[in-house]
Recover the amino acids of this structure.
């Protein structure tokens, strides 16, 4: 069908007529304080501990630039968690069993569900922190799309020891499908210190399917999966950051005393943007 022909073309179409609907690439001149302001690229209020500001949690590196940051003179940003990274939704019921700090597109820059309707490609690059490593005995979400009604995640990119697993993929990035359909594995690749892993995830919010492109370092993105069915309904917001779960599956998020104290852990992000792919354009380099 003509409807899907652009997916076949996409591996040879290089930014034919790129339309970006949300650009979260951080200018090389940006400083941490800008991330606390109402006009920040990312929501200044969510998702993080109540007592900390994003300016306390973000570290920048203009000399450590990912694939799709270079052409716009952007820099990478490391998102960190510490003992204060306890999110309390609505200011109540702090999630003491979890540590969280996640950048989300500023709603003012992503209005009318622009990132979760039509056919969109989510771009980002991700790298382990060299100086603030994760504790891979734990499960971490590092990128996810959460439904607007908070009843599930349409996609989740995880690392560490996935809950209920033997830890065989603890040094990998594992992309899982909708949590309401059993979190089916979609794609997996290594998560190596010193190396950016670049992703482009084409999401057709009309047809409910996803296709993954991926590369490392400065290599152009390469198609890694076919077009795979995945329920993408429910809109919501993308999260980019560190969401550290307790090691024990099924633990109540309000339970205290089960996350070790004295932590400082981070993940480095670059090249975050959402592209309109309705006409077949998927930027690969
Ligand atoms: C955005 O998505 C939410 C959740 O699906 C929906 O309630 C809302 O009406 C949508 N807004 C627009 C402008 O389409
Ligand atoms: C890593 O997590 C495990 C499980 O919570 C904990 O026993 C261990 O002390 C942690 N290691 C470090 C270095 O914090």
């Amino acid at each position: 069908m003509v409807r899907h022909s652009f997916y076949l073309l996409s591996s040879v179409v290089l930014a034919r007529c790129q339309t970006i609907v949300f650009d979260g690439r951080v200018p090389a001149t940006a400083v941490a304080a800008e991330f606390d302001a109402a006009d920040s690229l990312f929501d200044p209020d969510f998702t993080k501990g109540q007592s900390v500001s994003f300016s306390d949690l973000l570290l920048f590196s203009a000399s450590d630039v990912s694939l799709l940051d270079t052409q716009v003179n952007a820099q990478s940003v490391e998102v960190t968690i510490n003992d204060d990274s306890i999110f309390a939704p609505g200011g109540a019921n702090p999630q003491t069993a979890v540590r969280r700090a996640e950048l989300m597109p500023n709603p003012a820059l992503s209005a009318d569900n622009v990132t979760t309707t039509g056919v969109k490609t989510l771009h980002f690059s991700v790298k382990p922190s060299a100086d603030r490593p994760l504790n891979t005995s734990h499960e971490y979400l590092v990128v996810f799309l959460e439904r607007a009604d908070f009843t599930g995640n349409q996609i989740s990119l995880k690392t560490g020891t996935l809950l209920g697993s033997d830890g065989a993929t603890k040094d990998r990035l594992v992309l899982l499908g909708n949590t309401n359909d059993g979190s089916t594995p979609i794609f997996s690749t290594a998560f190596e210190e010193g190396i950016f892993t670049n992703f482009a995830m084409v999401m057709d919010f009309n047809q409910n399917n996803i296709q993954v492109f991926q590369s490392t370092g400065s290599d152009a993105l390469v198609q890694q999966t076919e077009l795979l069915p995945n329920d993408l309904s429910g809109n919501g917001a993308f999260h980019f950051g560190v969401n550290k779960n307790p090691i024990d599956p099924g633990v109540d998020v309000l339970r205290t005393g089960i996350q070790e104290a004295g932590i400082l852990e981070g993940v480095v992000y670059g090249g975050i943007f959402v592209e309109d792919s309705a006409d077949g354009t998927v930027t690969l380099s």
In short: DSSP finds two helices and 16 strands in the chain. The longest helix spans residues 5-9.
